[in-house]
Amino acid sequence: MPFAYYARLSPARQRIYRQSDAIVSLDLPPGAAVGPRVAHIRAGLARDDRAAVQTASQALIDALVAGYRVPRIRVRVLAKRPADDSGELHGLYEPDEGATPARISVWMRTAARRDVVAFKTFLRTLIHELCHHLDYELYKLPETFHTEGFYKRESTLVAALLREEAAAADPQGRLL
Ligand SMILES: [Zn+2]
Prior knowledge:
The chain is mainly alpha-helical. Helices cover 47% and strands 9% of the residues. It has five helices and three strands; from the N terminus they run H-H-H-E-E-E-H-H. The protein has helices at residues 11-22, 35-46, 50-68, 119-137, 148-167; strands at 73-78, 91-94, 102-107. A three-stranded mixed sheet has the order 1-3-2. Strand 2 (91-94) and strand 3 (102-107) form a beta hairpin. Helix 2 runs antiparallel to helix 3 (50-68), helix 2 packs across helix 5 (148-167) and helix 4 (119-137) crosses helix 5. The longest helix is centred in the C-terminal third of the chain and has 20 residues, at 148-167. It is globular and about 50 Å long. The protein starts with 10 loop residues before the first helix and ends in a 9-residue tail after the last helix. 31% of the residues are buried. It binds zinc ion (ZN). Residues 128, 132, 146 line the site of zinc ion (ZN).
């Protein structure tokens, strides 16, 4: 059952939508050491340390794009979302342009709420933007749509990353 906007798409775009919708899970690339990187994002957010979150987010995305064998992405973690920007999302994906690599921007705070965004929201936002990149670079779709399949890929990858994070810590939650 596609989302309502499907009906307004051209037949060619509906075909892309259906391709996207048909891919319903996304596994971690084999051998990617991602658990500690996820843990570093959590720790950086807890300390409200933008530079640490930026470094850990870039490291996580670097490991994932290397594992999927797709072009790299520059990750930018910004302190606060611009106030004139509307909507609930906390991130932005900009595809590559010529020599400029693709870029993900993620905000640590929303304009409305000054609090640091919750760790799982932050991780989900980062992976959401990565999924746009994978639509173009891994699945070779000409366009990237928010489909049910898209959100399922996002969810399965986030869940796998959280499992890896848990496996990278000892029973007291300390990072190994
Ligand atoms: Zn999106």
